[in-house]
TrEMBL record:
<keyword id="KW-0732">Signal</keyword>
<dbReference type="GO" id="GO:0000272">
    <property type="term" value="P:polysaccharide catabolic process"/>
</dbReference>
<keyword id="KW-0624">Polysaccharide degradation</keyword>
<dbReference type="InterPro" id="IPR013320">
    <property type="entry name" value="ConA-like_dom_sf"/>
</dbReference>
<feature type="signal peptide">
    <location>
        <begin position="1"/>
        <end position="24"/>
    </location>
</feature>
<keyword id="KW-0119">Carbohydrate metabolism</keyword>
<keyword id="KW-0326">Glycosidase</keyword>
<keyword id="KW-0378">Hydrolase</keyword>
<dbReference type="GO" id="GO:0008810">
    <property type="term" value="F:cellulase activity"/>
</dbReference>
<protein>
    <recommendedName>
        <fullName>Glycosyl hydrolase</fullName>
    </recommendedName>
</protein>
<dbReference type="InterPro" id="IPR002594">
    <property type="entry name" value="GH12"/>
</dbReference>
<comment type="similarity">
    <text>Belongs to the glycosyl hydrolase 12 (cellulase H) family.</text>
</comment>
<dbReference type="InterPro" id="IPR013319">
    <property type="entry name" value="GH11/12"/>
</dbReference>
<dbReference type="Pfam" id="PF01670">
    <property type="entry name" value="Glyco_hydro_12"/>
</dbReference>
């Protein structure tokens, strides 16, 4: 066996033992360090009731090598991931939980999501909601905790049309009060769809977000009309987590009425 394959297998095995041995998870999946989009379990998923949990190691499908990653879950209220992503540029994975809303903004009287997370103190990552609307033409990201700054600087930055000479993203809307919190809002394109990033100016791992208020705010600014809200996801967008860092999500639940 080539040396790189041995190392990848050992890394995946170590991650697997470290997570499932401690958690005794109902479901788990491990993907290896790889540059191939066809590698095992990059997009392994598990459905629990109305929720789907996905490993989502997508960078090899965009020609960026990824490290080993193990995801585990017991319920929508208890899941997590250990990820060993190299200290290189570019997002490697978005291990997440998802819920299909499939309702228009006007048809909803309430849309909220609650989460309690455990996140590491180092690495480069953000814990974020990812809300898809208008047949995925619009992507709304709600950053709760992250290793960059609310001013659009640091080792993770939101997608933006506008940048400073120092390489920081420039918010189009600053200190916006929504859902009991204050946000800086960035707008840009990833080449496939428009991305609206709400960076919570006070970082947190534990909160309930009024998603409907965020959608109504964007609609009031004419970014879109009464669009259909599709998937509402929450997870950890990981750029680097060298050596293996662990993240966990507790008590995640969506209320859609």
């Amino acid at each position: 066996m080539p040396r790189i394959s041995i190392l990848a297998s050992c890394a995946a095995a170590t991650l697997m033992l470290g997570v499932t041995g401690a958690k005794a998870a109902t479901w788990s999946a491990s993907s290896p360090a790889t540059s191939s989009c066809s590698s095992t379990d990059l997009f392994a998923s598990w459905t629990y009731g109305s929720y789907t949990i996905n490993n989502d190691v997508w960078s090899p499908c965009s020609n960026v090598a990824a490290g080993a990653q193990t995801i585990w879950a017991n319920t929508n209220l208890d899941w997590g991931v250990t990820s060993d992503q190299p200290n290189t540029s570019g997002i490697k994975s978005y291990p997440h939980i998802g819920y299909s809303v499939n309702k228009t903004i006007s048809s909803l009287s309430k849309l909220s999501a609650t989460v309690s997370a455990t996140t590491p103190s180092d690495g480069a990552w953000e814990s974020t909601f990812d809300i898809w609307a208008g047949s995925n033409a619009h992507e709304i990201m709600v950053w709760l905790n992250y290793t960059g700054t609310a001013a659009g600087c640091g080792n993770v930055k939101p997608i933006s049309y506008n940048w400073t000479s120092a390489g920081c993203a420039i918010p189009l809307h600053s200190n916006v009060s929504l859902s009991g919190s204050t946000w800086n809002v960035y707008v840009g394109s990833n080449g496939s769809n428009t991305v609206y990033s709400f960076l919570r100016t006070t970082k947190t791992d534990n909160t309930t977000v009024d998603v409907l208020a965020i959608m109504k705010y964007l609609k009031s600014l004419n970014y879109f009309d009464d669009v259909m809200i599709g998937d509402l996801q929450y997870g950890f967008e990981i750029t680097s987590s060298s050596g293996g860092l662990s993240f966990a999500s507790k008590n995640f639940a969506v209320t859609a009425e």
